[in-house]
């Protein structure tokens, strides 16, 4: 139970999160891993049209961007590869075998180091973006899927799906320094904009475990729809894609109260909010679409066609 | 008795919670036109308590009273003797749409994991168009699968399962009209 004082503190924290980022620009493009087509689609967000694609192989799933957003890093779980793409030229720059079944991916915002979760290897690999080599491997729990890095670049989290836990890793030393038990089969983990809390989507228990980063304890469990896949944040709200419920759950970041359940599409998966907080974008695996949710009205206000089987598991807006 | 079935189903489902899903899900969409009213076809295919319209299914054990309740479970026994359990994930009679997902599969019957089916019946000028959308993982939950548990084996098996089912649904609905 949270005390009144903690509630007030949370409200204050959330008020800060909710303050609009005055200088944050709206993204121009979405880079979507269309897994069944073996492609990364480029969607122009102003027109919501596909304007290009990059052929890859190995069933691309996860995606993250370099800190300057010029390079996209894509995981290919069936090719056991990390693939770097020049986002402007839309060409493959380099490929690297990282281990067994790379899926989740994140980039350290301070150092540019790329982290890849090897689903079948039960480890996180750190990849140097300049030398294109694996510089460290850290063993985690069975079947790591989603990963996230704090905005100060100090801490890395991995959702270890088969052991119902989150691993906490020190990014500087690449040592596993802790573990937090969460709900059943955590798939994705996202850290809120001020870095205080981690939100974990549990695909089997159909809920979100909220972890306080300072105390490393679960402080709240929020019920969402069937088979939650990803979490994004915009203007004081959390947005969760529910794969099997064809919906996006929206709840308040301060009070955890449900604000809406938006009918989205068939198999909503990868989700990310624009930096200006106006829109949330969702990849729809079964419908081959990227949809845009208006954060104020909580309605779907645009749809773009993608190639077959879009997943966009990670950060895909630039 | 209902409670016993429910308990048995629950126990049967527990091992499924330990199964991992690999990273690459596949799709298969099968459609058919049926010369019978949509409501008539929906009456057959929308009944979660009886999947006997599919020629491969010998017995359906569901919890009476929960046939329209999302996340209720059932046990399907195939004519081969194989047993699957599944979950009702969507029941929308106004859209004539039902969806269910397997939790516990016998790979000798179908080499798949986490096979979800969404079946919709649309009215087309007094006749019906039925769409069966399958989403599934192959049976082998690691890289480098043996041929009998590969993506190709899963896709071939699901395509055949859905076609056989819709062909039989057509025959049954058209005979009954």
Task: Explain what the structure shows.
The complex is a heterodimer of chains A (318) and B (177). Chain A is 5% helix and 53% strand. Chain A is built from 1 helix and 28 strands. Chain A has one helix at residues 4-18, and strands spanning 29-34, 39-44, 49-55, 62-65, 71-76, 81-86, 91-97, 102-107, 114-118, 123-128, 133-139, 144-149, 155-160, 165-170, 175-181, 186-191, 197-202, 207-212, 217-223, 228-234, 237-242, 247-252, 258-263, 268-273, 279-284, 289-294, 299-305, 313-314. In chain A, the strands form 7 sheets. In chain A, strands 7-6-5-4-28 form a 5-stranded mixed beta sheet, with no helix packed on it. In chain A, strands 8-9-10-11 form a 4-stranded antiparallel beta sheet, with no helix packed on it. A 4-stranded antiparallel beta sheet of chain A has the order 12-13-14-15, with no helix packed on it. Chain B is α+β, with helices and mostly antiparallel strands and 177 residues long. Chain B has one domain: 2-Layer Sandwich (Alpha-D-Glucose-1,6-Bisphosphate, Chain A, domain 4). Chain B has a 7-stranded antiparallel beta sheet with strand order 1-7-6-5-4-3-2, with helices on both faces. Chain B is globular, with a radius of gyration of 16 Å. The chains are: A mainly beta (318), B alpha+beta (177). The interface between A and B is medium-sized, with 29 and 21 residues.
